[in-house]
Specification:
Blueprint lengths: L7 H26 L1 H25 L5 H12 L2 E5 L5 E5 L12 H13 L3 E7 L2 E2 L21 H4 L11 E11 L2 E10 L4 H48 L13 H51 L6 H29 L7 E4 H9 L3 H7 L2 E5 L5 E4 L1 H18 L5 E8 L4 E8 L33 H11 L3 E7 L3 E11 L2
Parallel strand pairs: 8-10
Antiparallel strand pairs: 1-2, 1-6, 3-4, 3-5, 5-6, 7-9, 9-13, 10-11, 11-13, 12-13
Helix pairs in contact: 1-6, 2-3, 6-7, 7-8, 8-12, 9-11, 11-12
Length: 502
């Protein structure tokens, strides 16, 4: 059944488009809706900065103050007007078409002078069109002397009208400057409302930018979504192939670090599954072989004793008994492995003499030593006490000796060595003179039915599951264990247990 969730490719595509849409919305809001606010903030900062620069020029000893003021006003596209308190012009630089500072009446200069003086030496006058929003009284008639006519004078009261553009906002910064003991009035005029042409230009540009960005984002989003998802799609297909049982599949995603790490992990998983599958098949084949051989002999000898007179001898009966015991041991060993690996088998720890326990193992091999010529030697310096499960450690030693008997050389020599270590542990070694094990095969010798030569043969002693049982029992006891081997020389299996003082 097809999965109902959206694929990663289209998710990435959607996220990139949404991100582009958010950027465009923010761009439109800033450039159109909040253009006036930003423009006012920028022009206000520029006007304040220009005022500071003009004051520095006025206080300098330069001979060309007028030229410097003119340059600064031109660079900032503003109007600069410097007068004395009586309204007599000292310097003037006008670069705003709608500005009328040069036409400002003297009594209005005095009015601004008084306002700035009352305000600590500076004042800010805001206009909209020709209307003064800061000092509404300025919009009334200015009377230069008490006898003046009360008739309104548009030339004076309306000196800031912006040629019919009543919506345009502007501001005049008034500052009192002391120059060589003389007080001057500095006025800087800037326009706070962007012109229609600027707004229309920005709007048209944004339309084109929006179209181009949408087109580009569609292409880039599609390209990126395909590029990012390509490796993941390939990994998914390979994973499906592995789920169908093909463990030889390779994961090749290396485009990004995370994808490469995922590919490496899946490759390791595939390799382990492949190894486990191979071991599973070998296990089935080997167990089948070990089951089939004694069953065949039991059936054969039983039929002979049934059908042929005189064949019901103690020797034939003993063969049937021996093969039945081999079957029993094989089943018991497999059950022990299952219990140990499942963690349901518990150890019954007690303090006992490990040296004497090892000696008792040899009693099982008396017949083997007599009939087949095996030599099993045990060397030790002193008896050692340990705290462990005596029966399970007995199994460990028994299985290690069985393994040595199965793989020792033609001299049929097996050595068991007991060494007391300085760190309070006793080390038991079981060595043979066999063909040895290659270094690359050493990590796998503890696996069930693992064979170095891959050719299964019936064990001389035991069931072939001994080393796997040894591993699980030693891990149950938290013991140290390992194997040392050299090809052509032989192998030494060892384990270490903590000693107990008597």
């Amino acid at each position: 059944m097809r999965h109902e969730k959206i694929s990663i490719k289209w998710k990435i595509f959607t996220y990139l488009l949404v991100f582009t849409g958010i950027l465009l919305v923010v761009l439109w809001l800033i450039q159109i809706c909040y253009l006036d606010t930003f423009y006012k903030m920028i022009k206000t900062n520029e006007a304040e900065s220009l005022t500071t620069d003009i004051i520095s020029v006025l206080k300098s000893d330069s001979q060309n103050i007028g030229e410097q003021i003119d340059v600064l006003a031109a660079q900032n596209n503003m109007t600069v007007f410097v007068t004395d308190p009586e309204g007599n012009m000292v310097y003037s630089a006008e670069y705003i078409a709608t500005s009328r500072l040069n036409n400002m009446p003297a009594d209005l200069v005095q009015f601004y002078y008084e306002k700035a003086k009352e305000n600590g030496g500076s004042a800010k006058i805001e206009f909209q069109g020709g209307i003064n929003k800061t000092f509404p009284e300025e919009n009334k008639q200015f009377v230069p002397n008490p006898d003046a006519s009360p008739t309104p004078d548009p030339g004076k009261a309306g000196f800031m009208q912006n040629r019919g553009q009543d919506w345009i906002e502007s501001v005049i910064y008034v500052n009192l400057v002391q120059i060589a003991g003389e007080e001057l009035v500095l006025m800087v005029n800037t326009q706070l409302t962007p012109v229609d042409a600027t707004v229309n230009t920005l709007r048209i540009e944004l339309v084109w930018i929006t179209v181009i960005m949408v087109a580009l984002s569609l292409g880039v989003a599609l390209l990126l979504s395909r590029q990012v998802s390509k490796s993941l799609i390939h990994i998914t297909e390979s994973a499906k192939e592995m789920a169908r049982g093909n463990f030889d599949i390779r994961f090749e995603g290396t485009d990004y670090r995370e994808v490469a790490e995922l590919s490496n992990t899946l490759n390791l998983t595939a390799a382990e599954l492949n190894k486990n599958e191979r071991l599973r098949r070998e296990l089935i084949a080997n167990v089948s072989h070990d089951l089939r051989t004694p069953l065949t002999m039991i059936i054969a000898y039983s039929e002979v004793m049934r059908d042929l007179p005189g064949e019901n001898t103690p020797e034939n009966v003993q063969v049937v008994i021996d093969e039945a015991e081999r079957l029993t041991n094989l089943v018991n060993d497999m059950l022990d492995i299952s219990k140990l690996q499942a963690g349901v088998m518990e150890k019954q720890a007690s303090v006992y003499n490990l040296t004497e326990s090892i000696k008792s193992v040899f009693e099982r091999y008396n017949k083997l030593k007599e009939q087949d010529g095996y030599t099993i030697s045990f060397s030790y310096a002193q008896s050692v006490m340990v705290e462990a499960d005596e029966y399970k450690i007995f199994q460990v030693i028994y299985n290690l000796v069985n393994n040595a008997i199965n793989y020792t050389g033609e001299d049929k020599q097996i050595w068991i060595r007991q060494k007391v270590l300085d760190d309070g542990y006793v080390r038991i070694e079981v060595a043979d003179s066999g063909a040895g094990i290659a270094t690359e095969d050493l990590p796998y010798v503890w696996d069930r039915y693992y064979k170095v030569d891959k050719n299964h043969k019936r064990a001389v002693m035991g069931t072939g599951l001994g080393l796997s049982i040894v591993k699980n029992i030693l891990e149950l006891h938290e013991a140290r264990y390992g194997v040392e081997s050299e090809v052509g020389v032989g192998s030494t299996f060892w384990f270490e247990l903590k000693t107990v003082q008597e």
